[in-house]
């Protein structure tokens, strides 16, 4: 019986000890919570009581959350790191307390660094904006130039293009019978360049008149130039079309239209040449008396202008097949 009684007493003691331990633990936890709350309230109070910027030392007015001098938030500061060992330094601390390295960092240096960073960002932004503006201007100029050229191309006439010797553009722009006029002038311009190159004085070239028989595919051109003595002479150039070669070729040139007389002393080749030239003279005289095939003065002037401007040798034949 005594043993059972002792056992019961021990159990009651153990239960009392456990209850006491729980009460002590709860009390410690409550104290820890109270400490945390006090620290938090103290931190908020400390922040509100800060009257100077921790970064640069500038005075802060009530309600100012950011420093008006360096822009740092109230209660915060920019960390200053030792350039040698990486230890965090305090403001105006000239030597690192860990490695002794000298650090010439002052409040003004920090402020200047912040300002420099802001200026750099602003410059980068301004540079990007400037580049975009320049690109926009270039694109706008290109669009304007393209529009102007398009308008000019629409407004330019076939005659304007012919004056400039732009026969391909003139042919594309022309319609109906105007295309044949372009081809006619183009052929005469190419032949005029060939004639000028064959003159004794190429620079004396001048197209006086021309006749173009489209039905019979014949051309007569009267060209003036200077001879070896400097005198002005003119000749008729007679061209015929070759269906084989698909182009106009020079048949002969005639200094006058009077028939040559035959002589018993002529060789056979000389006689044949006189016969052919006299036949050509007959054709030329017949053609120059037809007003309906005579080339207009406007075309003659265009060709002479191209020669004077040095552009006649740049003319390229469009297509003699179209004209044929």
Summarize the structure.
This protein is an alpha+beta fold and 324 residues long. Helices cover 52% and strands 12% of the residues.
What number of structural domains do the residues give?
A: 3
Q: Choose one word for the global shape.
A: rod-shaped
Strand order of the largest sheet: 3-4-5-6
Radius of gyration using CA atoms only = 54 Å
Oligomeric nature of the chains? single chain
Largest sheet: 4 strands, antiparallel
| Succession of helices and strands | HEEHHHHEEEEHHH
Mean pLDDT: 80
Which structural class do you get from the secondary structure elements? alpha+beta
Q: What amount of the residues lies in strands?
A: 5-15%
Tell me roughly what share of residues is in helical segments: 40-55%
Contiguous helical run count: 8
The N- to C-terminal Cα distance equals 148 Å
Total beta strands: 6
Low confidence ranges = 41-45, 320-324
Task: Please tell me about this protein's structure.
With 324 residues, the protein is an alpha+beta fold. It is 52% helix and 12% strand. It has 3 domains: 58-105, no CATH class; 106-155; 177-323, no CATH class. It has 8 helices and 6 strands; from the N terminus they run αββααααββββααα. The strands form 2 sheets. It has a 4-stranded antiparallel sheet with strand order 3-4-5-6, sandwiched between helices. α4 packs antiparallel against α5. The model is unreliable at 41-45 and 320-324 (pLDDT under 50).
């Amino acid at each position: 019986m005594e043993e059972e009684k002792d056992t019961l007493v021990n159990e009651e003691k153990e239960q009392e000890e456990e209850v006491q331990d729980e009460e002590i633990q709860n009390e410690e936890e409550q104290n820890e919570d109270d400490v945390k709350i006090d620290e938090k309230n103290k931190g908020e109070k400390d922040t509100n009581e800060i009257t100077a910027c921790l970064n640069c030392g500038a005075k802060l007015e009530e309600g100012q959350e950011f420093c008006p001098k360096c822009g740092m938030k109230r209660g915060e500061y920019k960390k200053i790191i030792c350039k040698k060992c990486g230890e965090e330094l305090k403001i105006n601390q000239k030597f690192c307390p860990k490695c002794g390295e000298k650090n010439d960092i002052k409040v003004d240096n920090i402020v200047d660094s912040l300002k420099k960073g802001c200026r750099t960002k602003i410059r980068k932004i301004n540079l990007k904006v400037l580049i975009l503006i320049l690109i926009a201007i270039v694109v706008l100029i290109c669009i304007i130039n393209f529009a102007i050229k398009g308008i000019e191309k629409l407004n330019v006439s076939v005659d304007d293009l012919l004056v400039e010797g732009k026969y391909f553009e003139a042919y594309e722009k022309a319609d109906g019978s105007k295309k044949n006029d372009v081809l006619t002038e183009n052929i005469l311009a190419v032949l005029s360049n060939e004639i000028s190159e064959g003159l004794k004085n190429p620079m004396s070239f001048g197209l006086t008149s021309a006749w173009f028989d489209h039905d019979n595919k014949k051309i007569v051109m009267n060209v003036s130039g200077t001879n070896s003595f400097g005198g002005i002479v003119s000749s008729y150039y007679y061209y015929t079309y070759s269906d084989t070669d698909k182009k106009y070729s020079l048949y002969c040139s005639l200094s006058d239209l009077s028939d040559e007389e035959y002589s018993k002393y002529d060789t056979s080749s000389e006689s044949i040449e006189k016969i052919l030239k006299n036949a050509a003279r007959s054709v030329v005289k017949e053609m120059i008396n037809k007003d309906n095939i005579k080339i207009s003065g406007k075309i003659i002037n265009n060709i002479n202008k191209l020669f004077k401007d040095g552009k006649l040798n740049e003319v390229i034949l469009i297509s003699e097949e179209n004209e044929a």
